């Protein structure tokens, strides 16, 4: 009987956490939530869950504050606490991986992109005047303020002199990632066959049922001004 009661409590807290996360991140479906450890009732009595895994899909890019959708977000949370009214949840520490499809990245920068032939690089097709086109390869990196930057351009076809000004204009501003829970900081970005894999970590990571990324946006805008 104690095991059954504990499993019921686990299912209940997983459902409530999934609902709150869906409301905060505007996902079309509730994420998968797994509370690790036993007995969960003891953790609930203490007010803190030792470890929670969350997998969410299709976090949208609605409006100017969310320019790039996240295809999938995998979260590993340690020390998750939340008040009874579900106003917010706070994780002592967290690690996360966000997956950004090349289709969405292309929409964000206005160029068709794909994985490069060398590690850490992407290929981009750059249209030129009179209907011509060149292929450019660039490195992808994480910069302050949870932003993705493209640097070290190499033109594989055509003259660099004719495209340098255009590249500088297109890639002048790194892509801002704002649909990420507050407190997570971008550590690395890796091109894969299907898109960019962005790794995050942080402490005192906050989740709110509504406007969940607004505080993060303000924090990152401040970081961007000092970058």
Structural features, described:
With 227 residues, this protein is of the alpha+beta class. It has one domain. It has 5 helices and 11 strands, in the order αβαβββαββββαβββα. The strands form 2 sheets. Strands 1-2-3-4-11-10 form a 6-stranded antiparallel sheet. The longest helix is centred in the first third of the chain and has 24 residues. It is elongated, with a radius of gyration of 20 Å.
The residue-averaged pLDDT reads 81
Q: Describe the strand arrangement of the main beta sheet, using strand numbers.
A: 1-2-3-4-11-10
Query: What's the β-strand tally?
Result: 11
Structural class: alpha+beta
Query: Order of helices and strands, N to C?
Result: HEHEEEHEEEEHEEEH
Number of helices: 5
**Major beta-sheet overview:** 6 strands, antiparallel
Shape: elongated
Q: How many structural domains can be distinguished in the coordinates?
A: 1
Distance separating the two termini: 56 Å
Please mark out the parts with pLDDT under 50 across 5 or more consecutive residues, or reply none.
210-227
Query: Strand fraction band?
Result: 35-45%
Radius of gyration, in angstroms, nearest whole number: 20 Å
């Amino acid at each position: 009987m104690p095991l059954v009661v504990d499993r019921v409590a686990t299912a209940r807290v997983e459902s409530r956490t999934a609902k709150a996360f869906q409301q905060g991140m505007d996902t079309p479906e509730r994420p998968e939530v797994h509370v690790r450890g036993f007995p969960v009732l003891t953790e609930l009595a203490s007010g803190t869950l030792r470890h929670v895994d969350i997998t969410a899909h299709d976090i949208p890019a609605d409006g100017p504050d969310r320019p790039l959708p996240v295809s999938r977000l995998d979260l590993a949370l340690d020390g998750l606490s939340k008040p009874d009214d579900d106003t917010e949840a706070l994780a002592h520490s967290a690690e996360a991986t966000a997956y950004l499809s090349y289709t969405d990245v292309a929409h964000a920068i206005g160029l068709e992109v794909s994985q490069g032939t060398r590690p850490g690089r992407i290929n981009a097709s750059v249209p030129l005047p009179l209907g011509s086109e060149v292929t450019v390869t660039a490195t992808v990196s994480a910069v302050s303020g949870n932003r993705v930057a493209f640097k070290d351009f190499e033109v594989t076809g055509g003259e660099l002199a004719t495209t340098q000004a255009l590249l500088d204009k297109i890639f002048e501003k790194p892509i801002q990632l704002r649909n990420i829970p507050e407190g997570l900081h971008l550590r690395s970005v890796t091109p894969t066959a299907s898109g960019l894999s962005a790794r995050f970590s942080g402490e005192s990571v906050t989740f709110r049922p509504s406007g969940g990324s607004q505080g993060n946006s303000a924090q990152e805008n401040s970081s961007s001004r000092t970058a």
